[in-house]
Every structure is written in C-alpha cells, then in structure tokens.
Batch of 2 targets.
Target 1
Amino acid sequence: MTDFHDAEDAKRYRARLRKQQRYSQNYRDKLEAANIPDRDEMARACLTALVDLLAAGPDAKTCGLVPGTMVSALQEKGFSRDGTMDRLRGMVRRARSKVQAHQK
C-alpha cells in the first residue's frame, strides 16, 4: 500500500478502494445474473476452440468457425447466446479500435 503522510489522504484513498471494490463486485454479480461470460470465460472458450481447430488442421475454412465454436462452448456452460455474442462483438470492437489507433 502507498505511504501517506496525511491521514485525510489515506482515508480518501481507502474510501476510493472500497468504492471500486463494490463497483467491481456489483459488475461481476450483474454479469453472472444475466449469464454473460466474463473475459476469463471468453478466453478459456477461445483457447479451447482454437486448440480444437488446430488439432483438426488449420485452414481458412475452419478459422471462420472459431466464433461459433466459442459461443457454443459457452452456451454449454450455461451462458446466454445473446450475451456471449454481445461480449464478443464488444471485444472485437475494442481490439479493432486499438489497432486503428496504432495505425494513425
């Protein structure tokens, strides 16, 4: 933890940490209640799908199956299809915007 010389600074810092912890917990609870996978679940499904496709022999046709395979794997774990697709689209949008930002 950071050293503070002022007790008021330390108090504000701890209050900010508690607020962030509550926000993060509420967000995780909301995702769980709506059956929307978090980033770790998406990554796990992606890695599993990728390994399965590579084991079958990588080519352009099978690589196009990765998103559907991921969604199916997460559905089997109980996550909603629409929530999973929304999460995947969001991840793709963020990655695409990062790539575009680096190209400028």
Target 2
Amino acid sequence: MTQATARLAAGDTGAVDGLRPGAGEIGALAGALTVFRDALNDRTRRMREDMDRAEAAAAAERAAQQAALAAAEAERDRDRQEQARQEAERQERRRLRDAAEAERAAQLQEQQAWWCRGWPRRCGRCRRAI
C-alpha cells in the first residue's frame, strides 16, 4: 500500500490497478487511492483539454493577425498603385497642357506671320513696317 501511494504521488496511475477496495482499513485505503487516481486522471484530462483550447485560441489569434497583416499589406499595395496611377494622370495632363500651349503659340506665330504678309506697308496686328 505504501509503495502504491508513493507511485501514485509520483504520477503513476497504474500503481493502484492491483489494489481492490474491500472491507476494513486496507480496503478503505485502496478505495481512497482509487478515488485519488480517478481525480488525478480527471485533472490531467481537464488540463490537456484546457491546453488544447488555449493552443487552438492562440492559433486562431495568430491566423487572425496574419490575415490582418495580409489585408494591411494589400491595402498599402492598392494605395501605392493608386498613387502611381494618379501621378501618371498628372504627368499626362501636364504633357497634354504643354502640347496645347505649344500648339497655341505656334498658331499665334502663324497668325502674326499671316497678318504681316497680308499688308503691304504695315502689319495690321503688330503695326510693324513691312
């Protein structure tokens, strides 16, 4: 009985298997050791279940964090793409504006040249002597 108690205290739940509860003090001690063994097994099972739940919760938390990081990275990528698109649009507008200004300047020069060629003595537009 002493050896069974020491083994049970050390965590060996098989130590009580050979003991049979019966009448008398030794039988009562064997019954008590069986109750202790069952309680130890229940406690161990509950601890494993708690650890499994904690591990599952931690895994779910890690997955949620990874999903949030992936979503944030995707958002940053979309923002960068949008900024690049806007910059490209600004550059295109600037190029078109510069081209339109160059076209207007060329047309103005052509009109001034036409006015100057059209008048024999003085240009009607700029009044230069021809």
